[in-house]
Amino acid sequence: MSDETLFKKLERELRQFKPLLAKAADSILDQDVSKYPIFIIHKGEIEIGIDLINKEKMGGSWSINVSMLEEFAAKQLIQGNKIENFQQIFKDPTEYTCLFVLSEAGANFIFLPRPSKNKAKMN
After folding, report:
1. pTM (2 d.p.)
2. Residue 11 in contact with residue 112, Cβ under 8 Å?
3. Number of C-beta neighbours around residue 74 at 10 A
4. Which terminus of the chain is less hemmed in, N or C, by CB atoms within 10 Å?
């Protein structure tokens, strides 16, 4: 499966969870926990982050954990000398959701546009 196909499929599957991801990211930002919220999208068992969505309980294909750059650095998922580079490419978390996707294609960071606040207020 190409990265583009995976991205589109993932975006479709996660569409229903976008408001929840946005709310979790806002909580992390508003409480000054981190400026870099990261959502780990996975199908197996992982030991990073806090469970947000469990695929068995939700009947979906993916589980989602919430984490942040600081935990990725502490667990050496992002090496110390790469942190500054990561911070530079990290997109505005009020506009984008940072996903760390663990799939058959490997591990990739993807930035999904968040629902616009104007749309959210209208619904």
Report:
1. 0.87
2. yes
3. 11
4. C
Q: How many CA atoms lie within 13 A of 51 on its CB side?
A: 13
Give the distance, in angstroms, between the CA of residue 71 and the centroid of all CA atoms in the same chain.
13
pLDDT digits (tens, 9 = 90+) for 70-119: 999 999 999 999 999 999 999 999 999 999 999 887 898 999 888 776 44
User: Could you tell me the two tokens for 118?
Assistant: 């104007």
Order of all β-strands in the sheet with 106-113: 50-53, 63-68, 37-42, 96-103, 106-113
Domain encompassing residue 115: 3-122
Domain count, the chain: 1
Residues 1-22 pLDDT 10s = 566 676 777 788 888 888 999 9
Q: Specify whether the backbone of 32 is left (phi greater than 0), alpha (psi in -120 to 50) or beta.
A: left
Per the DSSP assignment, residues forming a β-bridge with 41 are: 64, 101
Nearest to 25, CA basis, from 37, 7, 8: 37
Neighbours of 115 (CB within 10 A): 15
Asked if pLDDT for residue 28 goes beyond 60, the answer is: yes
